[in-house]
Write a structure and sequence with these properties.
Strand content: 5-15%
Structural class: mainly alpha
Number of strands: 22
Helix content: 40-55%
Distance between the termini: 91 Å
Oligomer: single chain
Shape: extended
Radius of gyration: 47 Å
Length: 820
């Protein structure tokens, strides 16, 4: 963005108007113009002149300031096309000369000589976009294709004034800019490293932010979290200041540009030095590093360190800024994946953390000769599987964020002198690595250790590497020869345990059956039939088919979901299998879907399997029997996963009508139609009834509610049978009014459970005996406690949840410390 005119420039630009007003008031045009002796040799063209004033002076032959000395303002007014405003412009220049504002020592630099711009040699390389210029001047120079100050050389003031929107104020601004550049305001400091550059940038940034408009300053601080906390999004900042997110973005971008240009090319130079320093040491810019560079004193900065990191990044995107440290934000791009993969491999082989500099050099030596530090840090920041330790901000270290099970096992086994079980590997890994690198279970570890990865089962659940084989390599042909002879002798498959039993005297001290199995698997003459059973490959015998392959075959052939017992029966036609763990095994297969109610099918079937479920009468019967009674048809459709209306719902209703075990309250398939299973017990029906009612009721009212909800099922049950079920079932309790309620609903009755348990525990501890609930109520009443709403059943239910009390018999309790 182009910086607007400063206050000093605006004041100078308005001098002509102010002088005109003064002259108009006083009408003192007869005074002689005085030019100081030392300024009379200066060219009049070195000052910014309007076209009118330039032409007037040329017609009068005025070329230097000395030509004006002694003339009056009336002499100038007599010129053609000259008015008071033109005279006021001239007097502004005269007054500046009288005050010495534009005077310098003889032989010094003048931005305009003979109407042409002159640029000193040492500032010709300065980039115009890095200078604090106004929007108007920046656009004019851009339209003329000017990039560096040196391109202004030999351009006349008149040519520039012919540019659209260019006036005398713009030319005056350019002249002042050239004079400032010539005076060394934009000179670059020498030998400035990253630390000094950071201090200079922070100093310039703090000074520039103070001069910003209040609203722009607050928007910038909110967006980049200059006052602490988390940076706000564009939407959040916009809501705070009642602006659109696009307007907030424009203000932030313009403000960042203004701050970068506040000192001309100095700020970009310092930022480039910071980026170069970070690339040299292969280190990201973090809040900790900025604090280290600034030193211990807090007087050197005004804002949070993370704010400076974010602002540095916005002013120079080449700076690898990590304001949150290593957060893994942004993710990995495709070009970064190879770098991260190679770094993973090297760290796994190394087995310990490495500095970023060392890791970067290793990658360049190994494979990525053209890799630069900024690309390396960019890839590293987006990687979540690596961890960067920033405890030392100048020398960060990188390590694996989480060890793979294979890498963990290999590192542990390489340091072991014997095969280890998975639990032993994890225990040793806890001693070798930090806890955050180890997130594996023994089961997951066992599943990853395969011969293809270089791991061998050399004992009972014990894995090892090639270095852990007990039998020497030169003895392998001998043991293979003995096994071959046994196969020929038996003329059938032979297991390694059988071989070890028969040849125990020869091989038992050198090898076990597990190690022999791994040796034979590497020989193509033998065919592994599973579980240590081997045969000659020439016999053409195959390994027993795997359960997962058979399950897929069975389900595809059946073309509909099956329960575990049906699958188990089919599996027995192909091989031996244990049915106890089959449901758990099926749930682990990614291609199998559990459709509920013990039925399994292929995941690829999707929603098509529901069409089968509505036609399966045994399954529908099972669903209704298991659901809480009475089940409505709408709830049944919800359980099955179909809409309550439509073709599938009609099929489901037909299935319900075909079941003799189901009582239907209506002949129409409406959502509210009740479905009651005839095998529903009285206790279960009472539980469902009281759960819906939610408050205590006497037995006869419960019977009324029961018959209303389950009409046709319990109509013939007498009240005595209902009371007997309520009294004997532990699911119900009776209150002081002989009303029944579910035990789980006691919390809704407002009893002080903690207080009651405490009082009863104190009574039992003092009595040191077993006391029934009737007796406990009497004792509580004797101590003048309000027990009107308590009954023995309710009191027993409350006391059963006490840790201090123990139930002995039916509704009889004692203190747990009591020894009787």
């Amino acid at each position: 963005m182009i910086q607007p005119l400063s206050m000093q420039q605006r004041m100078k630009a308005s001098d002509a108007d102010r002088t005109l007003r003064e002259f108009s008031a006083e009408e003192r045009f007869d005074e002689a113009i005085f030019i100081p002796q030392e300024a009379r040799g200066y060219s009049i063209c070195s000052f910014p002149l309007s076209v009118r004033l330039r032409h007037i002076l040329e017609r009068r032959g005025i070329a230097i300031l000395g030509d004006l000395h002694g003339l009056s303002q009336n002499d100038i007014l007599k010129s053609a096309n000259c008015g008071k405003k033109t005279v006021a412009e001239l007097m502004t220049i005269v007054r500046s000369v009288q005050t010495g504002a534009h005077l310098s020592v003889p032989g010094s630099y003048e931005p305009v000589c003979a109407g042409v711009f002159s640029v000193p040699e040492r500032v010709k390389h300065v980039n115009i976009t890095e200078l604090p210029v106004s929007v108007r001047l920046g656009r004019i120079l851009m339209m003329r294709g000017l990039v560096h100050l040196g391109q202004l050389e030999e351009i006349s003031v008149d040519d520039l004034l012919k540019q659209k929107h260019c006036g005398k104020k713009t030319v005056f601004e350019l002249v002042e800019l050239l004079r400032s550049a010539a005076n060394g305001q934009f000179d670059m400091p020498q030998n400035c490293d990253g630390c000094e550059s950071c201090k200079n940038v922070v100093r310039l940034v703090d000074g520039a932010i103070v001069k910003l408009p209040a609203r722009n300053r607050q928007i910038l601080l909110s967006r980049l979290a200059g006052e602490g906390g988390e940076p706000l999004s564009l939407e959040e900042v916009g809501a705070k200041f009642k602006l659109t997110r696009e307007r907030v973005r424009q203000i932030v971008d313009r403000t960042v540009t203004d701050i970068r240009r506040v000192s001309g090319p100095k700020m970009p130079h310092f930022l480039r030095q910071i980026a170069i320093s970070l690339e040299e040491i292969v280190c990201p810019l973090t809040p900790e590093l900025v604090a280290l560079w600034l030193g211990e004193g807090t007087s050197q900065h005004c804002y949070q360190m993370a704010f400076y990191v974010r602002l540095f990044r916005d002013m120079n995107p080449a700076i690898p800024a990590w304001p949150r440290g290593h957060d893994g934000r942004g993710g990995l791009e495709r070009k970064d994946e190879e770098v991260v993969t190679e770094l993973h491999c090297w760290l796994r082989e190394r087995g310990s953390a490495s500095t970023l500099f060392e890791a970067f050099q290793q990658l360049r030596r190994a494979k990525f000769t053209d890799l630069d530090a900024s690309a390396f840090l960019h890839a590293l920041r987006g990687c979540r599987s690596l961890k960067v330790d920033l405890e030392n901000p100048v020398q960060p270290k990188v390590t694996l964020g989480r060890l793979r099970a294979v890498d963990l096992a290999r590192m542990v086994l390489q340091a072991s002198d014997r095969p280890l079980q998975a639990e032993e590997m994890l225990a040793r890994a806890q001693e070798m690595f930090t806890a955050d690198l180890i997130e594996h279970t023994p089961r997951a570890l066992n599943n990853c250790l395969t011969p293809e990865q270089g791991f061998y089962l050399l004992g009972a659940r014990a894995y090892g590497l090639r270095q852990h084989f007990q039998l020497r390599l030169e003895e392998w042909p001998t043991v293979k020869t003995d096994f071959t002879q046994m196969l020929k002798k038996k003329n059938r498959p032979v297991s390694t345990p059988d071989f070890m039993t028969e040849y125990s005297e020869v091989w038992s001290a050198k090898i076990n059956s597990y190690e022999l199995t791994e040796i034979l698997r590497q020989d193509g003459r033998f065919s592994d039939l599973g579980r240590g059973l081997f045969a000659f490959t020439a016999w053409g015998l195959e390994e027993r088919p795997r359960i997962r392959d058979l399950v897929t075959k069975i389900l595809r052939k059946n073309e509909r979901p099956m329960n575990a017992s049906q699958i188990f029966t089919r599996l027995q036609d192909f091989r031996s299998v244990s049915g106890g763990s089959l449901p758990a095994t099926l749930r682990k297969y990614p291609f199998v879907r559990d459709y509920g109610f013990g039925h399994f099918g292929l995941r690829s079937w999707g929603e098509k399997a529901k069409a089968w479920m509505v036609d399966d009468a045994p399954l529908v019967d099972r669903i209704i029997r298991r659901a809480e009674p009475p089940l409505t048809f709408g709830r049944l459709c919800e359980i099955v996963g179909i809409p309550p209306q439509g073709t599938r719902a009609n099929k489901l209703w037909k299935t319900c009508c075909a079941l003799d075990s189901i009582i239907r309250k209506s002949t129409d398939p409406r959502s509210e139609t009740k479905l009651i299973h005839k095998r529903c017990t009285l206790e279960r029906a009472l539980i469902a009834t009281l759960r819906v009612i939610g408050h205590p009721l006497p037995a006869y009212e419960i019977q009324w509610e029961l018959n209303e909800r389950f009409s046709g099922l319990f109509d013939g049950r007498p009240l005595a049978e209902v009371e007997r079920c309520l009294q004997r079932s532990p699911m119900f309790v009776r209150d002081a009014d002989s009303n029944f309620v579910l035990e789980v609903q006691l919390d809704q009755m407002g009893f002080d459970v903690v207080g009651i348990r405490g009082l009863c525990a104190d009574i039992l501890a003092q009595a040191n005996e077993i006391v029934g609930c009737e007796d406990l109520l009497d004792r509580l009443e004797g101590e003048r406690k309000d027990v009107a709403d308590l009954s023995p059943d309710i009191l027993a239910s409350i006391l059963r949840g006490s840790e201090r009390l123990e139930e002995v018999g039916f509704d009889r309790f004692r203190i747990r410390e009591c020894k009787r």
